Amino acid sequence: MDIASITYYSISPRMLNLLATIHHRLGEVHARHLHAPAAELAKAYHISVVHSTLAIEGSTLDTLPVADILASPTSATEGSAALEAVNTHRAHDLALELDPFVEHDLRHAHGVLMHGLALDAGHFRTGPMDVVYGEPEPLRTASAHDLPANVHELLRYAEEDDFPPLITSCVLHFGLVYLRPFTAGNGRLARLWQKRMLMRYWPVFAYLPVEAFIQRTQPAYYAALEYADRRGDCGEFIAYLLERIDEALAELLASPDPVLTGRDRIALFLQQNPDRPFRRKDYLNMFPELSTATASRDLAEAVGRKVLLLSGTKRQARYTRTV
């Protein structure tokens, strides 16, 4: 199979407008320090992601039962709806440790997602598979011929493509659904893998509940996938996903800004600047709304907690992360 036939897409004004809007919103997310939420908000978003991921796959579990299951994951049993929730929770937690362009990591993520739900979790299928998009009648049959090589080529394409990562991530999503490398769980893996790729560029995607917006428009999601499959052009599917990302970012930006403590600010700064030594002026560049006294207090408190190591005094003071 020629990978170009899977990754081809036409570019539309709608796609370009969405791309510009999303990049503007991502800039605002960065400026307002929304790339990492407060703990309670992060928990709520995570529950929403797990619930929506399963709802797209036909689960009838509501949000509250999902929250209860995630609070006590050891209660899940094999083959149960609760196990689906626990697996999804664990796979999303694991995502940051995985490389979105490595086949082994893709299979590992699938093994976690489908643990106890599929006998061959984490292993590529070896036989043909009917391709169905919401309708009982199959659109085509997906061959297993050269499947590992095709997946490898798709991941290499995603890593080396020069187009904006927002677009390439959507192509990766479609490509995994098109190839259907596994006997089950391909859709949820494709959505997770797009998220993981975007996390490399924008930390906000680690918790942005794009899946919830896909679930709200689920018939359109399957229609866009089928249309792309039939035409051999995933441009409209890309535009569909960009709309969902734009909606998720708009909702995030419409919410009140979290009140950040000094510890929150230090954690955010170190997340963006993990290793290099820095001065107070570098810290103020990220938080220009702070007074110099508040910035000095934040840094001194972090030194006291042994999060930062201080060398030098006054204007020559430099800070280095200790852990």
Characterization of this structure:
- By secondary structure, the chain is mainly α.
- It has two domains: 4-254, Orthogonal Bundle (Fic-like fold); 262-321, Arc Repressor Mutant, subunit A (Orthogonal Bundle).
- It contains 15 helices and four strands.
- The chain has helices at residues 4-7, 13-31, 39-56, 63-71, 81-94, 103-113, 147-160, 165-179, 186-199, 210-216, 218-231, 235-254, 262-272, 280-286, 292-304, and strands spanning 129-131, 140-142, 308-311, 318-321.
- A two-stranded antiparallel sheet has the order 1-2.
- Strand 1 (129-131) and strand 2 (140-142) form a beta hairpin.
- Helix 5 runs antiparallel to helix 6 (103-113).
- The chain is globular and about 70 Å long.
- The N and C termini lie far apart (47 Å).
- The relative contact order is 0.13.
Helix fraction bin: 55-70%
The H-and-E topology, N to C, reads as: HHHHHHEEHHHHHHHHHEE
CATH architecture descriptor text of the largest domain? Orthogonal Bundle
Largest sheet: 2 strands, antiparallel
Number of helices: 15
CATH superfamily of the largest domain: Fido-like domain
Q: Ranges with pLDDT <50 over ≥5 residues?
A: none
Kindly provide the name of the CATH class of the largest domain: Mainly Alpha
Q: Report strand order across the widest sheet.
A: 1-2
CATH topology of the largest domain: Fic-like fold
The tally of structural domains comes to 2
- The structural class is mainly alpha
Q: How much strand content do the residues show?
A: under 5%
Shape: globular
Number of E strands: 4
Mean pLDDT, all residues: 91
Distance between the termini: 47 Å
Query: What is the radius of gyration?
Result: 22 Å
